[in-house]
Prior knowledge:
The protein is α/β, with parallel strands linked by helices. About 40% of the residues lie in helices and about 20% in strands. Strands 3-4-2-5-1-6-7-8 form an eight-stranded mixed beta sheet, with helices on both faces.
Amino acid sequence: MPARILAIANRKGGVGKTTTAIHLAATLAIGSRRSLILDLDPQATATRALGFLASGGIPEGQAVGSDGGDRVRKTSDPGVDLVPGGPETSLAGGAAAGTWIASLIAREQAKYDFVFLDCPPSATDLILEAVGCAPEILVPTVCEPYAADGVQSMIELVSTARGAAQKDVGVLITMFDPTQAFAWDVARRIREEMGLRVWRAVIPRDPTVPRAAARGRTVIQEDPCSQAAVGYIELAREVLDHG
Length: 243
């Protein structure tokens, strides 16, 4: 069975897109599911977090299917592979980027259970092409003032993508701080007023996440009993059940 393709996207930065891509893949690997992360961010955050140099990306003007910028790299986690990102990604044209992404998925998806497209926050054309290639869209969001507006903006963008009517869109609440009253209000608005499917799993704000990142580790490796680790384990179970 070919891999499930999920684009992890939000037009707002700092909401945990890359953290979610890496930790969801790592958590699924515990259950022997193989994942490929495609780093589409010119800043190559996922690439650096997984121990590689930011030298990849979508090759400008390169023939689709060539093995230049899209070589798959093995990470330290045997269940997680990576297609590195890099500055070249910002130079790729919209339609050309979509063709490159679709070609790479077609070539690689039979080898994996999941392919995660880690989208940049602000490159609208690139997000649109990635979303067009993914039947499933996971939209991470923090529960801060105006966060719901960012989610709505992302949903509006998805509505313009190829095959929009068939997209399975789910919102993931990340970095949730239960001590903040407004966080509960924003979460309620997202769950009850926007008419969107929201993953039951919630990723809490947890100092284990930056501590693990500083050591080049996931929270699963750092402290599998931490709140964030538990949240990602619950998310992985839910993703499997949803499929």
